[in-house]
């Protein structure tokens, strides 16, 4: 069972370390202090994960079982690679027979069992390269992609939502029937068109916020479970005989309690 760290941690490091002022800006110093005192950061180091983000995926899987039975996985926006680490372990992927393909425009250090592309996913050639490397339909498409932040919340939301939409269309194009799609989004409202598209193509669509996602963060994760397959998918809401309402969707959200990293 994945549980948030409580109190101290097995590293023996105190959760109240301070960073000397020096020449650092106050904002930079606060970020560093928060990072080094974050129990999830310390736990990731202890357990060999490349980033604290590993626990976000593990907590989501603990409740929603999206990794169970996964044989092939595509990881979008993968750097530094903690989600790919988990996927490679679950699929028993090897370098000789990779079952996990990862992509990021940032450089990633090699990972056993993971075929890594340093490439922008918006590159027109990226989808075909990923599928060729994987050698079959994925059971799970993960996307932790987020646009570089500008400091303007609405702009950041729009830019990251665009990446989420591109990832969703890709997932619908490539997933095996019964597969799942998990993508980062930001609080502020998911576009109705995207929600409608996902609900037409998946059996269940919800928002989740794992405990390891910082309480002050606006990030959430959009989870679409049980891909219906490409036979008759992407129909209009009218053809389905109903019209999805974003307000109804948000009434069904599954948001875990936030846990502050302090």
TrEMBL record:
Composition-biased stretches (Basic residues): 11-20
Alphabetical UniProt keywords: Cytoplasm, Methyltransferase, rRNA processing, S-adenosyl-L-methionine, Transferase
The keyword Methyltransferase is annotated on this UniProt entry: yes
Compositional bias segments (type: Acidic residues): 240-249
Residues that coordinate or bind S-adenosyl-L-methionine: 81, 83, 104, 120, 144
EC number(s) stated in the UniProt entry for this protein: 2.1.1.166
Reactions catalysed according to its record: uridine(2552) in 23S rRNA + S-adenosyl-L-methionine = 2'-O-methyluridine(2552) in 23S rRNA + S-adenosyl-L-homocysteine + H(+)
Sequence segments annotated as region (Disordered): 1-20, 229-249
Subcellular location: Cytoplasm
GO molecular function: methyltransferase activity
Domain Ribosomal RNA methyltransferase FtsJ intervals: 49-227
Main subcellular location of this protein, as a coarse class: cytoplasm
Pfam family, one: FtsJ
One Gene Ontology term from the biological process aspect of the record: methylation
Active site positions: 184 (proton acceptor)
Source taxon at top rank: Bacteria
Function text: Specifically methylates the uridine in position 2552 of 23S rRNA at the 2'-O position of the ribose in the fully assembled 50S ribosomal subunit.
Entry similarity comment: Belongs to the class I-like SAM-binding methyltransferase superfamily. RNA methyltransferase RlmE family.
HAMAP family: RNA_methyltr_E
Protein name: Ribosomal RNA large subunit methyltransferase E
Organism: Pararhizobium capsulatum DSM 1112
């Amino acid at each position: 069972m994945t549980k948030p760290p409580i109190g101290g941690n097995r590293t023996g490091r105190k959760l109240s370390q301070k960073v000397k002022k020096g020449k650092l800006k106050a904002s930079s110093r606060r970020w560093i202090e928060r990072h080094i005192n974050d129990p999830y950061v310390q736990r990731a180091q202890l357990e060999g994960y490349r980033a604290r983000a590993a626990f976000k995926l593990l907590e989501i899987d603990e409740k929603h079982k999206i990794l169970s039975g996964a044989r092939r996985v595509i990881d979008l926006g993968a750097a530094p690679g903690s989600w790919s680490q988990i996927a490679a372990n679950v699929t028993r992927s090897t370098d000789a027979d990779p079952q996990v393909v990862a992509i990021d425009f940032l450089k990633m250090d090699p990972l056993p069992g993971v075929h890594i592309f340093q490439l922008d996913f918006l590159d027109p050639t990226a989808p075909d390269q990923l599928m060729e490397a994987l050698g079959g339909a994925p059971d799970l498409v993960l996307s932790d992609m987020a646009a570089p932040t500008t400091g303007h919340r609405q702009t950041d939301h729009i830019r990251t939502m665009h990446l989420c939409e591109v990832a969703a269309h890709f997932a619908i194009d490539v997933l095996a029937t019964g597969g799942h799609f998990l993508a980062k989004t930001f609080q502020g409202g998911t576009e109705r068109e995207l929600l409608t598209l996902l609900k037409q193509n998946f059996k269940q669509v919800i928002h989740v916020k794992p405990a390891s996602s910082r309480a002050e963060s606006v990030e959430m994760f959009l989870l679409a479970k049980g891909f219906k397959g490409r036979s008759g998918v992407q129909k209009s809401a009218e053809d389905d005989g109903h019209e999805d309402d974003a307000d109804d969707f948000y009434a069904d959200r599954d948001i875990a309690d936030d846990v502050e990293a302090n």
